[in-house]
């Protein structure tokens, strides 16, 4: 399974999920050349089919990879997705990052968690916040914003795909829950999982519990039963 992180995060955001699958994690993540790098990696490892879990920006990348390589994707899980990001909002973010990157990111990261998700926010503060504020480089952040300004979620690309699951936090301040519902409406065959008391990063607060792990695992188990395939 390929895990694709969202904007302003990296592979460490998936720490603790502890799913029973083999993972491909992109340590040097760049949305611009991600698809090409993934194809090279799959070729080198001799992997023909993959399952993809993409969060936010990573969801756009997952859909793009599926569009170009539909026969290679067994399962697609999209977390915290939306139709598109407003260009003006992205320009405002870029402006504020250039003005005071640390202050803006600090507020952004905290807004990624529901106020009810105290465990998730606490885990993030302890494990990642300080390092993210230090290591997230401005050029990389601006590159991610540029990519987000160029992409749009197109449901028609996935209408015939039966391996799609959408997972979304009800308290998401970054990608509104209402928008996720609208995406699901256009994809009636997709499975939709709404997580209560969860925000844009809806899984960190569940590290000590099995809720999300079981949901994701059940998606893969059901897909194997229907299609008789094994996820990588």
Structure, explained:
The protein has 232 residues and is of the alpha/beta class. It has one domain: Rossmann fold (3-Layer(aba) Sandwich), CATH 3.40.50.1820. Helices cover 46% and strands 12% of the residues. The chain has seven helices and six strands; from the N terminus they run E-E-H-E-H-E-H-H-H-E-H-E-H. It has helices at 34-45, 57-68, 87-111, 118-135, 138-150, 177-185, 211-227; strands spanning 2-4, 24-25, 50-55, 73-79, 164-169, 191-195. Strands 2-1-3-4-5-6 form a six-stranded parallel beta sheet, sandwiched between helices.
List keywords for this structure.
232 residues; alpha/beta; Rossmann fold; 7 helices; globular
Secondary-structure-derived class: alpha/beta
CATH class: Alpha Beta
Q: Tell me the major beta sheet.
A: 6 strands, parallel
The fraction of residues assigned to DSSP E strands is 5-15%
The residue ranges in which pLDDT falls below 50 over 5 or more consecutive positions are: 222-232
Write the layout of secondary structure elements.
Elements: E1 2-4, E2 24-25, H1 34-45, E3 50-55, H2 57-68, E4 73-79, H3 87-111, H4 118-135, H5 138-150, E5 164-169, H6 177-185, E6 191-195, H7 211-227
Parallel strand pairs: 1-2, 1-3, 3-4, 4-5, 5-6
Helix pairs in contact: 3-4, 3-5
